[in-house]
Amino acid sequence: MTKWSKKLAELGIELPEVAKPVAAYVPAVKAGRQVYTSGQLPMRNGELMAVGHVGVSVTIEEANACARQCALNALAAINSVVDLNKIEQIVKVTGFISGGPDFTQQSAIMNGASDLLLEIFGDAGKHARTSIGVASLPLGAPVEVELLVRLAD
Question: DSSP secondary-structure letter at 56?
Answer without folding.
Answer: T
